[in-house]
Amino acid sequence: MENGRSSSGKKDTSVCEIPSVAAGEIAAICKTHGNDKHRMLDILRDVQDRYRCISPSALNRIAEATGLTRIEVEGVASFYSFLSLTPRGRISIRLCDDIVDRYTGLEAVTSVFEEVLGIRVGETSPDGAFSLEYTPCIGMCDQAPAAMINDVVLTKLTVETARHFAKTLKSGQSPEDLISDRFASLTPHERATRMVDNNVRHAGDVLLGPVPEEAGLNHAIGMTPTQIFTAIEESGLRGCGGAGFTTGRKWRFAASERAEQRFVICNADEGEPGTFKDRVLLTERPQLIIEGMTIAARAIGASEGILYLRGEYVYLRELLEQALEERRRRGLLGENILGIRGFNFDVRLQLGAGAYICGEEGALISSCEGLPGEPKTRPPFPVNRGYLGFPTVVNNVETFCHAARILDRGARWFRDIGTEGSHGTKLFSICGDCLNPGIYELPYGHTVWEILERVGGEDAAAVQVGGPSGTMIARDSFHRKLTFDDLATGGAIIVFNGKRNILEIVEYYMSFFVHESCGYCTPCRVGNVFLQKAIRKFRKGLANPEDIEYLKDLSGTIIETSRCGLGMTSPNPVLTTLQNFPLVYAAVTKPNKDGIRDTFNIQSAIDGARKIAKRRSYIFDRDFTQ
């Protein structure tokens, strides 16, 4: 093989070719980002976007410009699923493979794309025009099936629309043409809402109702940091990403650290399957998000902030960049904000590249630093030593929005909403088997049954609260309340009716965790694989009653010994269904009359050998003929 071509003369798509003239262009990309190794993800994304891959020569050039070794650069490039060391198509089609998409017609949609484009999932067309692949949840579960076509999002796909889109792309039109023939003339907000329906079913009084501009920030500039901390603490605001740590205490801890610099990071990497609430706030309340970040910066003494946007939300990049630039023009970001000397704070947008683990704050900080998105060992915690080793406040989108509203209306106003220990409103992302999926802003304290009645999901047999890392409950638990002290959730509620196979759902969620583990620690990297295989054994009807204890013991080991939150919660699909759906497991673990149950399937064991040898067995295949 020479020059990237096989002996047959066809282009070998396994080789990443970048023209020699590109060396200067790659150097220019690095220079755009200050040749800063901490901006490695931005550099690699730009190279990927321009050349459809990151070649060996590109790795060398980037390493040289940033003062790193090639292996360090390659370690980052190989970590994120949206980056590739081998060529991808000029148009990359990523079909969302979430369980909700599977239940709403993904298989038929996939078949259409494969048929029209002439490639299978996981392949790139010989002419390099198209790549087709599956990707985990892209935050569109309320309008599934969905797909990303380069930076364009398509939702509510059907066989008919998929065929139309595929043919349009094959005819030479761009992904943007699928949205509008005047896409270039649309505003960033118009583009975003043409692609994705906000799907706000109920707007509450805090976030999605009328919000005055900069009211919270205007109050904050007349307050001392201590007064700001106290107001946030007295409001009862807790982190809205799921962990529920008291927000005011977190800010106070960061401010109390002696340091030359401090940072504020907004975690907009909502990768938990079934969660899409931040998507709506990013679209409709970008100013409020940044206002909340600015208030936090005022309180802790930070001059720099980062808004970390998940790669799947790339379609919102221009909208957010526009919001940041507008605030700079209005004197709401930059130096001497609102004319106050020394009040300096600015925010940069950091785009992720397809890694669920980066939703964990340590992994997110690593990613912002230009490293693979691996969690950091704690302690120290980010408030003590976070981004670049400095005290760092990391909160999610919803939390910063709430903080801004609290400074506007007061701690008592917010505290009086909701229930004791769970104050304020919560954005619920509701999807699955219900009539009205979408976003609901409601006070804490509603029961699951009240939610189901509101969304048209009364026939639910199971509800996944908090996404895969949360809790799956049965009908006998629908009286439980959505609060921090009962059913805690980052916002995701997925409804499943009685037609769905619980073990199929559990196996999918375990496959998701296997795929998304960063691989750093053995319990998570290996243990989740064993859990997935064990669930598959149950689904095949090959499990012994003792296998239930194996599931519990292995889950406990993974939780106790994993390094970060992914491993500590990944067994939850198994543990919560064992607890709440025991009959599902019991039904497939009944022993034979003699008390012995076969657990070894000879046919499955030799199936691989059949494929390799391309023949059947005259011993184990009874209908075998020579």
From TrEMBL:
Residues of the NADH-ubiquinone oxidoreductase 51kDa subunit iron-sulphur binding domain: 503-548
InterPro entries, alphabetically?
NADH-UbQ_OxRdtase_51kDa_CS (IPR001949), Nuo51_FMN-bd (IPR011538), Nuo51_FMN-bd_sf (IPR037225), NuoE_dom (IPR042128), NuoE_N (IPR041921), Nuop51_4Fe4S-bd (IPR019575), Nuop51_4Fe4S-bd_sf (IPR037207), Thioredoxin-like_sf (IPR036249)
**What organism is the protein native to?**
Roseibium album
> So what family is this one in?
Belongs to the complex I 51 kDa subunit family.
Q: In its UniProt entry, what is this protein called?
A: NAD-reducing hydrogenase HoxS subunit alpha
Q: One Pfam match, by short name?
A: 2Fe-2S_thioredx
List required co-factors: FMN; [4Fe-4S] cluster
Residue ranges annotated as transmembrane are: none
